[in-house]
Amino acid sequence: MTSRRRAAIQGLCLAAVGLMLIWIFPRAARLAEMAARELRYLWWLTLMIGVGAWLIWGYGRKPRP
User: Fold this and answer.
1) CA–CA separation, 1 vs 7, rounded Å?
2) Which of 2, 18, 23, 60 is deepest in the core (most CB within 10 A)?
3) Cα(11)–Cα(17) distance, rounded to whole angstroms?
4) pLDDT tens per residue, range 46-61
């Protein structure tokens, strides 16, 4: 499996999990929508998403030589 194919599969799985969570927790979807409109008040949500993405894809990787 190539790295491009694996990245595509990971992206699709992430999108599927996100859609499933929005379907299960509609209040969280409303919070995310409000946060997208009012980022100056909910800047911490953007920070949490960034830290989560770093933990998923960046933490623990060996640096390239």
Assistant:
1) 10
2) 18
3) 10
4) 788 889 888 888 776 6
By CB atoms closer than 10 A (0-12, 13-18, 19+), residue 59 is: exposed
**HSE, side-chain direction, 13 A CA sphere, residue 55:** 6
- Prediction pTM value: 0.46
- Chain mean position to CA 21: 12
Angstrom distance (rounded) from CA 36 to CA 42: 8
Contact indicator for 42, 34 with CB cutoff of 8 Å: yes
